[in-house]
Design brief:
With 443 residues, this protein is an alpha/beta fold. It has helices at 30-41, 61-80, 92-100, 114-126, 142-145, 153-161, 194-200, 216-230, 234-237, 250-254, 260-268, 272-295, 307-315, 327-331, 338-350, 355-367, 372-386, 393-402, 424-430, 433-439; strands at 2-4, 15-20, 46-52, 84-89, 103-108, 131-134. It folds into 3 domains: 1-137, Rossmann fold (3-Layer(aba) Sandwich); 138-172 and 216-295, Serine Threonine Protein Phosphatase 5, Tetratricopeptide repeat, CATH 1.25.40; 302-438, Orthogonal Bundle (DNA Cyclobutane Dipyrimidine Photolyase, subunit A, domain 3), CATH 1.10.579.10. The structure holds flavin-adenine dinucleotide. Residues 14-142 form the Photolyase/cryptochrome alpha/beta domain.
Length: 443
Amino acid sequence: MLRRLNRHPPAEGEHVLYRMQASQRAEGNPALEYAVAEANRRALPLLVCFCLDPRGEGRQARHLGFMLEGLAETGAHLADRGIAFLVGAGPPHEVVAALGEEAALVVADRGYLHGQAEDRALLAERLAVPLVEVEGEVVVPVETASQKEEWSAATFRRRIARHLEPFPAPQAQRAVRVRSADDGNHETLRLDRPDALLRTLGAAEDAGPAAFTGGLTEARRLLDRFVRERLGRYANERNDPNADVLSCMSPYLHFGQISPLEVARRVRAVGGTDAAAYLEELVVRRELSMNFVRYNPAYASPDCLPAWAATTLADHAGDPREYEYALADLEAAATHDPYWNAAQRELLGTGKMHGYMRMYWGKKVLEWSSTPEEAYHALLTLNNRYELDGRDPNGYAGVAWCFGKHDRAWKERPVFGKVRYMNARGLRRKFDADRYAARFGEE
Ligand SMILES: Cc1cc2nc3c(=O)[nH]c(=O)nc-3n(C[C@H](O)[C@H](O)[C@H](O)COP(=O)(O)OP(=O)(O)OC[C@H]3O[C@@H](n4cnc5c(N)ncnc54)[C@H](O)[C@@H]3O)c2cc1C
């Protein structure tokens, strides 16, 4: 999906500029391919720029390190294609606007969070040339799938299904007509010295590195392993954290290091129940999250909740809590619950908590906080600080789900009201929770 973000007439210029933000890859990237086509049409070189923004609050070295690994590979792939990759530091609308002064056209990709949309709006204002946005982080463009906020996965599934047959085609890759990779005319930060960059960006180092290496090559290696060794058990075992059947695509999707369409097509080619269960998560659930942040301006607070959930939580706001923990206790995995602590330790140690435990983890914080607002804040803080895939539409939707979003009312009970409840007994029924607790037990 293409969208003009300002009304400037076509401009003469020395190059076409692609401002890479959400789609941090040189393959399967619709914004990049559109920019190549536009540069070729004008017989101009294409420059790709990426902006490291030191204003990013509370970002951990683990996120930035993973991102820089991916960007280094992307830079090398772009160079192979004859395209210069310029990395700058500073507020994006300033860095990109400066490079855009001599551009005939600026192209942007599309992230859905408020900060990303605001960046593009500021850039559209600053530039004196046309700015075009190209959507590439979804299988079905968000406004094509639905024109409004969807109530649940069931309502969204029906809408998006109409656009999945025939299944969207992969992005064709074009050669550039005019090379820019070796003109040496532009300044760029060196990605081969990530430590220096992390210092420049003021990244916090509380968490230590995550257990994943960034970049498309690693994403494809994991995807390949998933399809060969794990997909066949996905439908039955994806809710068992001891089974190790997940794809681990979320960090790579979050940073746009692999195309969601590439992942979807690879799995779909296998077919069968397991592939269908996976596509339900990757396409329906993930793109429902994009729908949520696109259409619900309050996605980062309990104000986003449906009326029934807000009402029932308010009705039970005064219920006594059996346990109450402050953010610091939660962060330190210092609760009375060995399963919850194990989940928090998995997160701290690896940068990725198992998906099934994320639900339990969120529900318990709601149960153990003095107010739903405090619980909401604690969950988003921990999720965004430690999950490698945090600060993502999926994270906002996942936290909101713990408070009733995209869900229905259940039997009423203390603290939760009619919001779905989870307990340790339920975990033990589903899988060997003690084995999981031992795996991520205290040292
Ligand atoms: C409280 C809570 C917080 C969460 N925070 C995040 C987050 O910050 N970032 C994030 O990407 N996901 C988040 N999720 C959703 C989900 O848990 C993760 O996407 C999944 O565990 C990632 O691991 P994977 O790639 O190995 O998953 P797989 O099971 O292999 O799934 C493949 C892909 O499908 C998508 N997917 C899977 N489950 C969901 C889901 N429930 N909702 C939406 N998309 C899904 C993801 O893109 C994932 O990469 C959260 C869920 C909850 C309940």
